[in-house]
Amino acid sequence: MKKIALASMIISVGILGACSQEKSDNMKGMDHSNMKMGEMDHSSMDMKDMDHDKMKGHMSHDKVISLNDSTGENELKVPTLLARDHEKGIVYTVKAQKGKTEIFDGTESETYGYNGMFLGPVLRFEKGDKVKIRTINELDEPTTFHWHGLEVSADVDGGPHDVLKPGEEKVLEFEVTQEASTLWFHPHPHGKTSEQVYKGLAGLIYIEDDHSKGLGLPNDYGKNDFPLIFQDKTFDSKKQLNYSAAKNEDGTIGDTLLINGTLNPKLTVNKEKVRLRLLNGSNARNYTFKLNSGDSFLQIATDGGFLNEPVPLQEITLTPSERAEIIVDFSSIKKVNNLALINEDGAVLLPFEVTDQNGVNRKIPEKLNDFSLEDNVMHLPVTKKVELFGMMDMVTINGKKFDPERIDFTQKQGDTEVWEIYNKPDMMGGMIHPFHIHGAQFKIISRDGKDPSKNERGWKDSISVKPDEKVKIAVQFKHKGVYMFHCHILEHEDNGMMGQIKVE
Questions:
Q1: Which CATH number applies to 2-64+372-503: 3.40.640.10, 2.30.110.10, 2.130.10.10, 2.60.40.420?
Q2: 340-342 and 348-358: which strand pairing?
Q3: Residue 401: its pLDDT value, please?
Q4: CB contact at 8 A, 94 and 156
Q5: Cβ(19)–Cβ(319) under 8 Å?
Q6: How many helices (H) and strands (E) does the chain have?
Q7: What percent of the chain has pLDDT over 70?
Q8: Domain 74-213 architecture
Q9: The pLDDT of residue 48
Protein backbone atom coordinates (compact mmCIF):
# COMPACT_ATOMS: atom_id res chain seq x y z
CA MET A 1 0.00 0.00 0.00
CA LYS A 2 2.91 2.34 0.64
CA LYS A 3 3.97 2.52 -2.98
CA ILE A 4 0.38 3.11 -4.16
CA ALA A 5 -0.08 5.94 -1.69
CA LEU A 6 3.24 7.49 -2.63
CA ALA A 7 2.47 7.22 -6.34
CA SER A 8 -0.87 8.95 -5.76
CA MET A 9 0.85 11.68 -3.79
CA ILE A 10 3.38 12.26 -6.56
CA ILE A 11 0.65 12.59 -9.15
CA SER A 12 -1.38 14.89 -6.93
CA VAL A 13 1.38 17.45 -6.66
CA GLY A 14 1.38 17.84 -10.40
CA ILE A 15 4.73 16.33 -11.29
CA LEU A 16 5.24 16.88 -15.01
CA GLY A 17 5.67 14.08 -17.55
CA ALA A 18 8.31 13.21 -20.09
CA CYS A 19 6.92 13.19 -23.59
CA SER A 20 3.27 13.97 -24.44
CA GLN A 21 2.74 10.58 -22.93
CA GLU A 22 -0.47 8.59 -22.79
CA LYS A 23 -1.32 6.80 -19.60
CA SER A 24 -2.44 3.21 -20.08
CA ASP A 25 -5.26 2.04 -17.82
CA ASN A 26 -4.81 -1.48 -19.09
CA MET A 27 -2.00 -3.06 -17.12
CA LYS A 28 -1.93 -6.38 -18.95
CA GLY A 29 1.47 -7.78 -19.71
CA MET A 30 2.65 -7.51 -16.11
CA ASP A 31 3.32 -11.25 -15.76
CA HIS A 32 6.93 -11.57 -14.64
CA SER A 33 6.96 -15.37 -14.40
CA ASN A 34 9.35 -15.55 -17.34
CA MET A 35 11.81 -13.08 -15.79
CA LYS A 36 15.19 -14.69 -15.45
CA MET A 37 17.12 -14.57 -12.22
CA GLY A 38 19.13 -11.37 -12.03
CA GLU A 39 16.99 -9.47 -14.53
CA MET A 40 15.30 -6.30 -13.36
CA ASP A 41 11.64 -6.21 -12.28
CA HIS A 42 10.99 -2.55 -11.64
CA SER A 43 7.20 -2.88 -11.60
CA SER A 44 7.47 -4.61 -8.24
CA MET A 45 10.14 -2.29 -6.91
CA ASP A 46 9.08 -0.34 -3.83
CA MET A 47 8.70 3.34 -4.61
CA LYS A 48 10.62 4.22 -1.45
CA ASP A 49 13.77 2.87 -3.14
CA MET A 50 13.60 5.55 -5.84
CA ASP A 51 15.70 8.69 -5.72
CA HIS A 52 13.01 11.36 -5.76
CA ASP A 53 15.52 14.10 -6.52
CA LYS A 54 15.97 12.50 -9.93
CA MET A 55 12.28 12.42 -10.76
CA LYS A 56 11.74 16.12 -11.46
CA GLY A 57 8.28 15.38 -12.71
CA HIS A 58 8.47 12.41 -15.03
CA MET A 59 6.40 10.09 -12.89
CA SER A 60 2.92 10.97 -14.12
CA HIS A 61 3.82 11.02 -17.85
CA ASP A 62 0.66 13.04 -18.45
CA LYS A 63 1.85 16.64 -18.71
CA VAL A 64 4.81 18.27 -20.33
CA ILE A 65 6.36 21.68 -19.78
CA SER A 66 4.75 24.00 -22.31
CA LEU A 67 6.79 25.65 -25.03
CA ASN A 68 7.04 29.41 -25.26
CA ASP A 69 5.55 30.90 -28.42
CA SER A 70 7.98 32.00 -31.09
CA THR A 71 7.79 35.77 -31.47
CA GLY A 72 8.97 35.44 -35.07
CA GLU A 73 11.53 38.19 -34.69
CA ASN A 74 14.41 36.24 -36.24
CA GLU A 75 14.51 34.85 -39.77
CA LEU A 76 15.13 31.13 -39.72
CA LYS A 77 18.75 30.13 -40.20
CA VAL A 78 19.22 27.59 -42.97
CA PRO A 79 22.15 25.17 -42.54
CA THR A 80 24.89 25.50 -45.13
CA LEU A 81 25.39 22.78 -47.72
CA LEU A 82 28.79 21.30 -46.99
CA ALA A 83 31.21 21.72 -49.88
CA ARG A 84 32.97 18.62 -51.15
CA ASP A 85 36.71 18.29 -50.60
CA HIS A 86 37.99 16.13 -53.46
CA GLU A 87 41.33 16.03 -51.64
CA LYS A 88 42.87 12.60 -52.24
CA GLY A 89 39.42 11.15 -52.78
CA ILE A 90 37.98 12.65 -49.60
CA VAL A 91 34.43 13.74 -50.28
CA TYR A 92 33.68 15.52 -47.00
CA THR A 93 35.47 16.56 -43.82
CA VAL A 94 33.30 16.68 -40.69
CA LYS A 95 34.72 18.07 -37.45
CA ALA A 96 33.12 17.92 -34.02
CA GLN A 97 33.96 21.27 -32.46
CA LYS A 98 33.29 23.36 -29.37
CA GLY A 99 32.70 27.07 -29.29
CA LYS A 100 30.42 29.86 -28.16
CA THR A 101 27.16 30.84 -29.81
CA GLU A 102 25.02 33.93 -29.39
CA ILE A 103 21.61 32.29 -29.17
CA PHE A 104 20.19 35.26 -27.28
CA ASP A 105 21.30 38.65 -28.63
CA GLY A 106 24.35 39.90 -26.78
CA THR A 107 24.87 36.71 -24.75
CA GLU A 108 27.19 33.87 -25.68
CA SER A 109 26.68 30.32 -24.50
CA GLU A 110 29.07 27.38 -24.71
CA THR A 111 27.94 25.03 -27.49
CA TYR A 112 29.05 22.17 -29.72
CA GLY A 113 28.77 21.94 -33.48
CA TYR A 114 29.95 20.22 -36.64
CA ASN A 115 32.26 22.39 -38.75
CA GLY A 116 31.10 25.32 -36.68
CA MET A 117 30.00 26.40 -33.24
CA PHE A 118 26.39 25.11 -33.18
CA LEU A 119 24.64 22.27 -35.06
CA GLY A 120 26.05 21.27 -38.45
CA PRO A 121 25.84 21.57 -42.22
CA VAL A 122 23.84 19.44 -44.63
CA LEU A 123 25.71 16.62 -46.39
CA ARG A 124 24.39 15.78 -49.86
CA PHE A 125 24.81 12.30 -51.30
CA GLU A 126 23.71 10.77 -54.59
CA LYS A 127 22.62 7.14 -54.73
CA GLY A 128 25.61 5.23 -56.05
CA ASP A 129 28.17 7.64 -54.59
CA LYS A 130 31.32 6.11 -53.17
CA VAL A 131 31.90 8.36 -50.21
CA LYS A 132 34.92 9.10 -48.06
CA ILE A 133 34.38 11.20 -44.96
CA ARG A 134 37.23 12.38 -42.76
CA THR A 135 35.84 12.65 -39.24
CA ILE A 136 37.81 14.68 -36.69
CA ASN A 137 37.21 15.09 -32.95
CA GLU A 138 38.21 18.58 -31.83
CA LEU A 139 36.30 18.33 -28.54
CA ASP A 140 37.87 17.84 -25.12
CA GLU A 141 35.99 14.57 -24.68
CA PRO A 142 35.43 11.36 -26.68
CA THR A 143 32.67 11.29 -29.29
CA THR A 144 31.45 9.24 -32.23
CA PHE A 145 29.93 10.08 -35.61
CA HIS A 146 26.68 8.14 -36.09
CA TRP A 147 24.93 8.27 -39.48
CA HIS A 148 21.33 7.85 -38.40
CA GLY A 149 19.26 6.02 -41.01
CA LEU A 150 22.18 5.30 -43.34
CA GLU A 151 22.55 1.68 -44.42
CA VAL A 152 26.26 1.13 -43.97
CA SER A 153 28.52 -1.54 -42.51
CA ALA A 154 28.78 -1.53 -38.74
CA ASP A 155 32.41 -0.43 -38.72
CA VAL A 156 31.42 3.01 -40.09
CA ASP A 157 28.00 3.31 -38.41
CA GLY A 158 29.42 5.32 -35.51
CA GLY A 159 27.88 3.48 -32.58
CA PRO A 160 29.32 3.51 -29.05
CA HIS A 161 32.14 1.13 -30.04
CA ASP A 162 33.55 3.61 -32.59
CA VAL A 163 34.84 6.25 -30.19
CA LEU A 164 37.24 8.95 -31.34
CA LYS A 165 39.32 10.42 -28.54
CA PRO A 166 40.09 14.16 -28.47
CA GLY A 167 42.41 15.00 -31.36
CA GLU A 168 41.81 11.74 -33.21
CA GLU A 169 40.51 11.40 -36.74
CA LYS A 170 39.24 8.57 -38.91
CA VAL A 171 38.41 8.22 -42.60
CA LEU A 172 35.16 6.39 -43.33
CA GLU A 173 34.38 4.81 -46.70
CA PHE A 174 31.04 3.51 -47.94
CA GLU A 175 28.77 3.36 -50.97
CA VAL A 176 25.35 5.00 -50.88
CA THR A 177 22.88 2.28 -51.89
CA GLN A 178 19.52 3.51 -50.64
CA GLU A 179 16.89 5.68 -52.22
CA ALA A 180 16.27 9.41 -51.82
CA SER A 181 15.64 10.35 -48.19
CA THR A 182 16.32 12.81 -45.39
CA LEU A 183 18.64 11.35 -42.75
CA TRP A 184 20.73 12.91 -40.00
CA PHE A 185 23.96 12.50 -38.07
CA HIS A 186 24.78 12.92 -34.40
CA PRO A 187 27.14 11.54 -31.72
CA HIS A 188 26.61 8.21 -30.00
CA PRO A 189 29.16 7.78 -27.16
CA HIS A 190 27.58 5.66 -24.44
CA GLY A 191 26.55 7.74 -21.46
CA LYS A 192 27.24 11.07 -23.19
CA THR A 193 24.95 11.08 -26.24
CA SER A 194 22.20 13.11 -24.56
CA GLU A 195 24.54 15.88 -23.44
CA GLN A 196 26.44 16.14 -26.72
CA VAL A 197 23.27 16.33 -28.82
CA TYR A 198 21.77 18.84 -26.39
CA LYS A 199 24.84 21.04 -26.74
CA GLY A 200 24.45 21.10 -30.51
CA LEU A 201 25.93 18.06 -32.25
CA ALA A 202 23.39 17.33 -34.99
CA GLY A 203 23.26 17.74 -38.76
CA LEU A 204 21.27 16.54 -41.76
CA ILE A 205 21.96 14.26 -44.71
CA TYR A 206 20.10 14.52 -48.02
CA ILE A 207 20.19 11.56 -50.40
CA GLU A 208 19.05 12.19 -53.97
CA ASP A 209 18.59 9.79 -56.87
CA ASP A 210 17.43 9.93 -60.48
CA HIS A 211 13.87 9.12 -59.47
CA SER A 212 13.61 11.91 -56.89
CA LYS A 213 15.06 14.46 -59.30
CA GLY A 214 12.43 13.55 -61.88
CA LEU A 215 9.40 14.02 -59.62
CA GLY A 216 9.27 17.79 -59.96
CA LEU A 217 9.07 18.35 -56.20
CA PRO A 218 10.22 21.63 -54.64
CA ASN A 219 14.01 21.25 -54.44
CA ASP A 220 15.44 24.78 -54.43
CA TYR A 221 17.37 24.58 -51.19
CA GLY A 222 16.64 27.44 -48.81
CA LYS A 223 13.90 28.86 -51.06
CA ASN A 224 11.18 26.24 -51.35
CA ASP A 225 12.97 23.27 -49.77
CA PHE A 226 13.77 23.83 -46.08
CA PRO A 227 15.30 21.58 -43.41
CA LEU A 228 13.73 22.13 -39.99
CA ILE A 229 15.54 20.71 -36.95
CA PHE A 230 13.28 21.03 -33.88
CA GLN A 231 14.98 21.00 -30.46
CA ASP A 232 13.64 22.21 -27.13
CA LYS A 233 16.02 23.65 -24.56
CA THR A 234 16.06 25.13 -21.08
CA PHE A 235 18.30 28.13 -20.49
CA ASP A 236 19.47 29.14 -17.03
CA SER A 237 19.12 32.59 -15.47
CA LYS A 238 22.21 33.75 -17.35
CA LYS A 239 20.76 32.52 -20.68
CA GLN A 240 23.27 29.69 -20.83
CA LEU A 241 22.67 26.30 -22.42
CA ASN A 242 23.39 24.41 -19.21
CA TYR A 243 22.76 20.70 -19.67
CA SER A 244 23.81 19.68 -16.15
CA ALA A 245 21.15 22.01 -14.70
CA ALA A 246 18.45 20.97 -17.19
CA LYS A 247 19.14 17.23 -17.24
CA ASN A 248 16.34 14.82 -16.40
CA GLU A 249 17.01 11.08 -16.26
CA ASP A 250 13.61 10.42 -17.84
CA GLY A 251 14.23 12.70 -20.81
CA THR A 252 15.34 16.31 -20.80
CA ILE A 253 12.59 18.69 -21.88
CA GLY A 254 12.76 22.47 -22.18
CA ASP A 255 10.41 25.43 -22.53
CA THR A 256 12.31 27.16 -25.34
CA LEU A 257 12.24 25.89 -28.92
CA LEU A 258 15.10 26.33 -31.33
CA ILE A 259 14.63 25.53 -35.01
CA ASN A 260 17.93 25.10 -36.85
CA GLY A 261 19.41 26.73 -33.75
CA THR A 262 17.30 29.87 -34.26
CA LEU A 263 15.52 31.42 -31.28
CA ASN A 264 12.07 32.92 -32.00
CA PRO A 265 12.25 32.00 -35.70
CA LYS A 266 10.02 32.89 -38.63
CA LEU A 267 10.15 31.59 -42.18
CA THR A 268 9.53 33.81 -45.19
CA VAL A 269 8.01 31.97 -48.16
CA ASN A 270 6.46 32.82 -51.52
CA LYS A 271 2.96 31.86 -52.63
CA GLU A 272 3.89 28.40 -53.85
CA LYS A 273 4.22 24.81 -52.72
CA VAL A 274 7.03 24.55 -50.15
CA ARG A 275 8.78 21.39 -48.99
CA LEU A 276 9.52 21.18 -45.26
CA ARG A 277 11.83 18.42 -44.06
CA LEU A 278 10.94 17.93 -40.40
CA LEU A 279 13.37 16.37 -37.91
CA ASN A 280 12.52 15.85 -34.27
CA GLY A 281 16.05 16.39 -32.98
CA SER A 282 15.00 16.80 -29.35
CA ASN A 283 16.26 14.67 -26.50
CA ALA A 284 12.78 13.60 -25.40
CA ARG A 285 9.91 15.84 -26.50
CA ASN A 286 7.27 14.65 -28.98
CA TYR A 287 5.78 17.16 -31.42
CA THR A 288 2.41 17.22 -33.13
CA PHE A 289 2.73 19.67 -36.03
CA LYS A 290 -0.23 21.48 -37.60
CA LEU A 291 -1.14 24.81 -39.19
CA ASN A 292 -3.01 27.26 -36.99
CA SER A 293 -5.31 28.03 -39.95
CA GLY A 294 -6.62 24.48 -39.94
CA ASP A 295 -5.43 23.93 -43.52
CA SER A 296 -4.11 20.54 -44.52
CA PHE A 297 -0.73 19.65 -46.02
CA LEU A 298 0.70 16.64 -47.83
CA GLN A 299 3.15 14.18 -46.33
CA ILE A 300 5.38 12.83 -49.07
CA ALA A 301 8.11 10.93 -47.18
CA THR A 302 8.91 9.05 -43.98
CA ASP A 303 12.33 8.51 -42.36
CA GLY A 304 13.87 6.58 -45.21
CA GLY A 305 12.12 7.56 -48.43
CA PHE A 306 9.01 8.57 -50.32
CA LEU A 307 5.54 7.24 -49.61
CA ASN A 308 3.77 5.62 -52.54
CA GLU A 309 1.48 8.61 -52.83
CA PRO A 310 1.07 11.94 -51.00
CA VAL A 311 -1.06 11.65 -47.86
CA PRO A 312 -3.21 14.67 -46.93
CA LEU A 313 -3.02 15.45 -43.22
CA GLN A 314 -4.03 18.17 -40.82
CA GLU A 315 -1.43 17.15 -38.26
CA ILE A 316 1.53 14.84 -37.87
CA THR A 317 3.28 13.58 -34.73
CA LEU A 318 7.00 12.87 -34.61
CA THR A 319 8.85 11.35 -31.66
CA PRO A 320 12.59 11.92 -31.13
CA SER A 321 14.69 11.04 -34.21
CA GLU A 322 11.71 10.62 -36.57
CA ARG A 323 11.59 12.58 -39.81
CA ALA A 324 8.88 13.47 -42.30
CA GLU A 325 8.77 15.51 -45.48
CA ILE A 326 5.64 17.59 -46.01
CA ILE A 327 4.41 19.95 -48.72
CA VAL A 328 2.54 23.11 -47.71
CA ASP A 329 0.77 24.95 -50.52
CA PHE A 330 1.04 28.61 -49.49
CA SER A 331 -0.68 29.69 -52.70
CA SER A 332 -3.95 28.04 -51.65
CA ILE A 333 -4.11 29.15 -48.01
CA LYS A 334 -6.60 32.01 -47.77
CA LYS A 335 -5.70 33.41 -44.34
CA VAL A 336 -1.97 34.04 -44.40
CA ASN A 337 -1.89 36.76 -41.74
CA ASN A 338 -0.43 35.35 -38.51
CA LEU A 339 -0.08 31.95 -40.20
CA ALA A 340 2.12 29.58 -38.22
CA LEU A 341 3.10 26.01 -37.55
CA ILE A 342 1.87 25.13 -34.07
CA ASN A 343 1.95 22.10 -31.79
CA GLU A 344 -0.79 20.12 -30.05
CA ASP A 345 -1.04 22.72 -27.27
CA GLY A 346 -1.34 25.61 -29.71
CA ALA A 347 2.17 26.91 -29.00
CA VAL A 348 3.50 28.88 -31.96
CA LEU A 349 6.53 26.99 -33.28
CA LEU A 350 7.23 28.69 -36.59
CA PRO A 351 5.40 31.78 -37.90
CA PHE A 352 5.26 32.13 -41.69
CA GLU A 353 5.57 35.40 -43.54
CA VAL A 354 3.97 34.85 -46.94
CA THR A 355 5.13 37.35 -49.58
CA ASP A 356 3.05 38.68 -52.46
CA GLN A 357 5.39 36.96 -54.88
CA ASN A 358 4.11 33.91 -56.73
CA GLY A 359 6.51 31.00 -56.97
CA VAL A 360 6.61 28.04 -59.30
CA ASN A 361 3.20 26.55 -60.01
CA ARG A 362 4.03 22.87 -59.76
CA LYS A 363 1.91 19.76 -59.51
CA ILE A 364 2.77 17.15 -56.91
CA PRO A 365 2.78 13.70 -58.56
CA GLU A 366 0.05 11.29 -57.53
CA LYS A 367 2.59 8.45 -57.50
CA LEU A 368 5.89 8.91 -55.67
CA ASN A 369 7.17 5.40 -55.00
CA ASP A 370 6.47 1.69 -55.48
CA PHE A 371 7.04 0.69 -51.86
CA SER A 372 5.39 -2.62 -50.95
CA LEU A 373 5.13 -5.09 -48.13
CA GLU A 374 5.40 -8.52 -49.71
CA ASP A 375 2.74 -11.12 -48.90
CA ASN A 376 5.33 -13.63 -47.75
CA VAL A 377 6.76 -11.11 -45.29
CA MET A 378 3.30 -10.40 -43.87
CA HIS A 379 3.01 -14.04 -42.82
CA LEU A 380 6.51 -14.57 -41.43
CA PRO A 381 6.62 -15.62 -37.78
CA VAL A 382 7.98 -13.27 -35.15
CA THR A 383 11.62 -14.18 -34.50
CA LYS A 384 12.71 -11.22 -32.34
CA LYS A 385 10.78 -9.87 -29.35
CA VAL A 386 11.79 -6.56 -27.84
CA GLU A 387 10.23 -5.44 -24.57
CA LEU A 388 10.72 -1.78 -23.65
CA PHE A 389 10.20 -1.05 -19.97
CA GLY A 390 10.88 1.40 -17.19
CA MET A 391 11.58 5.03 -16.46
CA MET A 392 14.41 7.30 -15.32
CA ASP A 393 17.65 5.33 -14.86
CA MET A 394 15.73 2.06 -14.40
CA VAL A 395 14.99 1.51 -18.09
CA THR A 396 15.59 -1.86 -19.74
CA ILE A 397 15.12 -3.84 -22.92
CA ASN A 398 14.01 -7.42 -22.28
CA GLY A 399 14.77 -6.87 -18.58
CA LYS A 400 18.41 -5.99 -19.24
CA LYS A 401 20.57 -2.92 -19.46
CA PHE A 402 23.10 -2.38 -22.23
CA ASP A 403 26.30 -4.40 -22.00
CA PRO A 404 28.86 -3.71 -24.74
CA GLU A 405 30.20 -7.25 -24.31
CA ARG A 406 26.80 -8.93 -24.78
CA ILE A 407 25.14 -9.76 -28.10
CA ASP A 408 21.37 -9.80 -27.64
CA PHE A 409 20.29 -11.00 -31.09
CA THR A 410 21.83 -12.46 -34.24
CA GLN A 411 20.49 -12.23 -37.78
CA LYS A 412 21.69 -13.29 -41.22
CA GLN A 413 22.74 -10.61 -43.69
CA GLY A 414 20.03 -10.17 -46.33
CA ASP A 415 17.39 -12.18 -44.45
CA THR A 416 14.12 -10.47 -43.57
CA GLU A 417 12.87 -11.17 -40.05
CA VAL A 418 9.85 -9.93 -38.13
CA TRP A 419 10.50 -8.12 -34.87
CA GLU A 420 7.77 -7.46 -32.33
CA ILE A 421 8.30 -4.33 -30.24
CA TYR A 422 6.26 -4.20 -27.02
CA ASN A 423 6.06 -1.19 -24.71
CA LYS A 424 5.33 -2.74 -21.33
CA PRO A 425 3.39 -0.43 -18.97
CA ASP A 426 4.84 0.40 -15.59
CA MET A 427 2.75 1.05 -12.48
CA MET A 428 2.41 4.72 -13.48
CA GLY A 429 0.91 3.71 -16.81
CA GLY A 430 4.01 4.09 -18.95
CA MET A 431 5.22 6.48 -21.60
CA ILE A 432 5.85 6.54 -25.32
CA HIS A 433 9.22 5.10 -26.29
CA PRO A 434 10.67 5.93 -29.73
CA PHE A 435 12.52 2.82 -30.93
CA HIS A 436 15.44 3.00 -33.38
CA ILE A 437 17.52 0.34 -35.15
CA HIS A 438 20.94 1.17 -36.56
CA GLY A 439 22.05 0.23 -40.05
CA ALA A 440 18.64 -0.63 -41.49
CA GLN A 441 15.43 0.81 -42.84
CA PHE A 442 12.42 -1.32 -41.92
CA LYS A 443 8.74 -1.70 -42.81
CA ILE A 444 5.87 -1.52 -40.33
CA ILE A 445 3.64 -4.59 -40.61
CA SER A 446 1.08 -3.80 -37.93
CA ARG A 447 0.23 -1.89 -34.77
CA ASP A 448 -1.69 -4.08 -32.31
CA GLY A 449 -2.65 -6.28 -35.23
CA LYS A 450 -3.95 -3.42 -37.38
CA ASP A 451 -2.48 -2.01 -40.57
CA PRO A 452 -0.27 1.06 -40.06
CA SER A 453 -1.74 4.43 -41.02
CA LYS A 454 -1.19 5.52 -44.61
CA ASN A 455 1.50 8.01 -43.66
CA GLU A 456 3.54 5.27 -41.94
CA ARG A 457 3.63 2.97 -44.97
CA GLY A 458 7.12 3.89 -46.00
CA TRP A 459 10.70 3.16 -44.95
CA LYS A 460 11.33 3.77 -41.26
CA ASP A 461 14.30 3.57 -38.92
CA SER A 462 12.52 4.91 -35.82
CA ILE A 463 8.99 4.25 -34.57
CA SER A 464 6.80 5.53 -31.80
CA VAL A 465 5.53 2.79 -29.48
CA LYS A 466 2.76 3.69 -27.03
CA PRO A 467 2.30 2.07 -23.63
CA ASP A 468 0.92 -1.47 -23.95
CA GLU A 469 1.25 -1.34 -27.75
CA LYS A 470 2.80 -4.08 -29.88
CA VAL A 471 4.32 -3.13 -33.21
CA LYS A 472 5.53 -5.67 -35.76
CA ILE A 473 8.22 -4.61 -38.22
CA ALA A 474 10.04 -6.36 -41.08
CA VAL A 475 13.78 -5.86 -40.72
CA GLN A 476 16.58 -6.65 -43.15
CA PHE A 477 20.27 -5.75 -42.82
CA LYS A 478 22.31 -5.23 -45.99
CA HIS A 479 25.65 -5.27 -44.19
CA LYS A 480 27.41 -7.33 -41.56
CA GLY A 481 28.58 -6.30 -38.11
CA VAL A 482 27.25 -5.35 -34.69
CA TYR A 483 24.48 -2.73 -34.59
CA MET A 484 22.59 -0.99 -31.79
CA PHE A 485 18.85 -0.91 -31.18
CA HIS A 486 17.51 1.40 -28.51
CA CYS A 487 15.02 3.90 -27.19
CA HIS A 488 15.72 7.31 -28.74
CA ILE A 489 14.85 9.28 -25.64
CA LEU A 490 18.52 10.09 -25.30
CA GLU A 491 18.69 9.90 -21.51
CA HIS A 492 17.06 6.46 -21.65
CA GLU A 493 19.64 5.38 -24.22
CA ASP A 494 22.46 6.65 -22.00
CA ASN A 495 20.90 4.86 -19.02
CA GLY A 496 21.14 1.50 -20.77
CA MET A 497 17.90 1.12 -22.75
CA MET A 498 19.88 -0.36 -25.61
CA GLY A 499 20.81 -3.72 -27.06
CA GLN A 500 23.05 -5.19 -29.77
CA ILE A 501 22.39 -7.35 -32.80
CA LYS A 502 25.15 -9.17 -34.67
CA VAL A 503 24.53 -9.51 -38.40
CA GLU A 504 26.45 -12.45 -39.83
A1: 2.60.40.420
A2: antiparallel
A3: 98
A4: no
A5: yes
A6: 8, 31
A7: 88
A8: Sandwich (2.60)
A9: 38
Q: Please report the pLDDT score of residue 24 as a whole number.
A: 38
* Segment holding 353, helix H or strand E: strand 348-358
Three-class DSSP labels, 252-276: CCCCEEEECCEECEEEEEEECEEEE
pLDDT at 84: 86
- Up-side HSE of residue 335: CA atoms within 13 Å toward CB? 9
Query: E strand or H helix at 287, and its extent?
Result: strand 287-291
Q: How far is CA 417 from CA 31, 70, 445, in A?
A: 26, 44, 11
Euclidean distance between CA atoms 415 and 412, whole angstroms = 5
> In this model, does residue 284 exceed pLDDT 70?
yes
Edge-to-edge strand order for the sheet containing 181-186?
Answer: 122-126, 203-208, 181-186, 146-148
Give residue 275's pLDDT: 98
Cα(57)–Cα(14) distance, integer angstroms: 8
Question: What is the topology classification, in CATH, of domain 230-358?
Answer: Immunoglobulin-like (2.60.40)
Q: CB 273: neighbour CB atoms within 10 A?
A: 23
Span 440-473, pLDDT tens digits? 999 999 999 999 999 999 999 999 999 999 999 9
Q: What is the arithmetic mean of pLDDT over 189-217? A: 97
What is the pLDDT, as a whole number, of residue 3? 39
29: left (phi over 0), alpha (psi -120 to 50) or beta: left
Residue 426 vs residues 8, 57, 110: alpha-carbon distances, Å: 14, 16, 37
pLDDT of residue 373: 83
Question: What is the DSSP secondary structure assignment for residue 183, as one 8-state letter?
Answer: E
Which of 117-121, 156-160, 390-394 bottoms out in mean pLDDT, i.e. has the lowest?
Answer: 390-394
**pLDDT at residue 62, as a whole number:** 58
* Average pLDDT score, the chain: 89
Domain extents in the chain:
2-64+372-503, 74-213, 230-358
Give one DSSP letter per residue of 406-458, joined into a string: ---EEE-TT-EEEEEEEE---TT----EEEEETT--BEEEEETTBPPPGGG-S
CA dist 377 and 444 (Å) reads: 11
Q: What is the model's pLDDT at position 433?
A: 97
Instruction: Name the phi and psi angles at 54, rounded to 5.
Output: -85, -20
Residue 487 exposed, middle or buried by CB count within 10 Å (0-12, 13-18, 19+) = buried
Phi and psi dihedrals of 295, rounded to 5? Answer: -70, 155
Chain centre distance of CA 319: 6
Q: Is the pLDDT of residue 9 over 80?
A: no
Q: Which residues contact 92 (CB under 8 A, 6 or more apart)?
A: 82, 84, 85, 123, 131, 132, 133, 134
